Amino acid sequence: MPITSSAKKALRVAKKKKIFNTRRKSTMDSSIKAIKKLIKENKIKEAEKMLPEVYQAIDKAMKTKLIKKNNAARNKSRITVFLNKKRS
Length: 88
Hints:
Blueprint: H1 5-40, H2 44-63, H3 69-87
């Protein structure tokens, strides 16, 4: 357990950030999973409509430094390539 007051505050802040980060990551992961499922089921129109939402979730995770910039770019690129392969 923390002893000093600054360490106690740091623990409180870390707990709050953990909740926020977990929520943001689960939102990102679930949206990626959902769009992949739509693409596999050949529901291309629905997947295209959902693509901006997925991009937004990934960009928000990157903005808050939950994931790195290249990781976000790679995720967005892979989803787009997957969608384009099924489309053609």
